[in-house]
Write a structure and sequence with these properties.
Elements lengths: L14 E4 L3 H10 L6 E4 L13 E2 L1 H9 L3 H6 L3 E3 L1 E5 L7 E4 L10 E3 L2 H13 L4 E4 L4 E6 L5 E6 L3 E3 L2 E4 L7 H4 L4 E14 L12 E4 L6 E7 L6 E8 L6 H13 L5 H13 L3 E10 L3 E2 L2 E3 L5 E2 L7 H15 L9 H34 L3 H16 L1 H12 L5 H20 L13 H34 L1
Parallel strand pairs: 1-2, 1-12, 2-8, 5-14, 12-19
Antiparallel strand pairs: 3-7, 4-7, 5-6, 9-10, 10-11, 13-16, 13-17, 14-15, 15-16, 17-20, 18-19
Helix pairs in contact: 1-4, 1-8, 2-8, 8-9, 9-10, 9-13, 10-11, 10-12, 10-13, 12-13
Bound molecules: flavin-adenine dinucleotide.
Length: 476
Amino acid sequence: MDIQHSTDETLDADVIIVGGGVTGCAMATALADGKRKILILEARTGHKPRFAGELLHPTGTQVLDDLGFLPTLRKHGGVDVDGFAVVKSPTIPVTRLPYGEIERQRPTGFAMEHRDLVNGMREWTEKQPGVRFLFNEKVEEVMRNAQGRVCGVRTAQKVLRANLVLGCDGRHSKIRPLLGLSEEARLLSFSVAMRFPDGAKHLPCPTFGHIFLGAWGPMLIYPIGGHNGSRDARGCFDVTRELSGGPKGASELIRREYAPHLPPPLAKALLESLDREPPQIAANEAIRTAKAVLPGAAIVGDAGGCAHPLTAAGMTVCFTDAQRIGKLLASAGNFSNAAQVDAALRRYEIERYRFVRVRELLADALYEVFRGAEPGTRAIREGIFRYWEGSKTARARSMALLSGANSNPGVFLREYLTVVGNSTTAVIAGETGPVRGESATMRERLDSFVGLGQKSWEKARMVLRDVRQELARASA
Ligand SMILES: Cc1cc2nc3c(=O)[nH]c(=O)nc-3n(C[C@H](O)[C@H](O)[C@H](O)COP(=O)(O)OP(=O)(O)OC[C@H]3O[C@@H](n4cnc5c(N)ncnc54)[C@H](O)[C@@H]3O)c2cc1C
């Protein structure tokens, strides 16, 4: 629908933010300067409980701190997290990857239950001057003026106009196709999630996020705090996309094929949780976009794409996106200068994809390695443990990539190839049999060598593709 260019008097807000989830809240707070009129349109009425992001790296946590969210979130039960711990099997010592080993970076991440996180973020955002929420307002159309510039949205009830529209409406964004921005989407697997009341004490390192290996897919278990000082934990189990039977089928699968790979106290907490309530199920998707802005509009956070949640990088991308736009538009007043706004949005697009591409590469590579479904990736899994156990510098480099402190694709490739080098040593030592602990046969070693070569070539090609695309974008 075309509408005429709006004058300031006809505007409903300076900026319309579509979606009042974690990204929408961070976005509004990052733009709130006391003078701007900021309208958040949220499709739902309340916050329907659903399982989504809870574990946040230091880079994302720092943004929440900068924007003033943390005291409110702590009040809602959020807790600090000190790093990651990877557990190959209950009988092998834990490999710890503390955030504190990364230089010049906040030493802690943060975690809390997703519903509490959204509620806490909304509570703080509503207090920001000039910010207004409208619930039960599902955006159905994007409005453009005679010049084709985005100038508002239409919901079922009303047409609303603004100088700028920001789509913060999640991975299944409606704004993305309405703006004509394309995506590549793949369903990877499902996450089956449950809560362990007061369960953090059963974790080998109670203030760390844990990745347990040994089952079909990795098992992520981390503290999420809780109310009245309780230290709950969340279990998030990666299962095949062929999962059938809904929550009951998922529950049986987890009991049978995942619980035996956990240390006994955690396995017990898991079984008790499954006895108490059915697990929640969420799809794990990889959604890749190549463009995030148009004149007068941008997509932000998951609307711009997402990766497998194993690396817990989703919200770090959401919050850095929001902070980046906030800074780039800091001097843009009420966004009435279209040329200034569009130049800032183009800069946002360049900077966001530089940050996002390494997160996507890493999520893809670590998921493959921790699943270890093929000889090459099984070999890399052995190599990565050797690498991390070898030195603090190695751990810090990996964690800098994981946590968002480093976004250099060259560093990712160098690290990957270093791990492949360690993996080759593991193959020579015969440590990469199909069942860990068993020696590999000659045939398996040969398959591992071939797989290592294939994986290295594949990752080098992916890095080259991304670097080429980002250079082209920057010089356009
Ligand atoms: C299983 C799973 C586990 C995850 N674990 C982690 C983790 O540990 N750490 C991490 O950092 N990330 C994790 N993530 C990713 C994280 O959940 C997302 O990055 C984050 O929730 C995205 O927030 P968002 O606000 O962009 O989107 P959403 O959370 O999807 O919110 C979008 C909002 O927009 C509203 N909306 C949608 N359409 C419209 C419309 N047309 N009009 C108006 N409003 C609309 C929705 O109602 C919703 O409130 C996980 C994701 C999954 C699926």
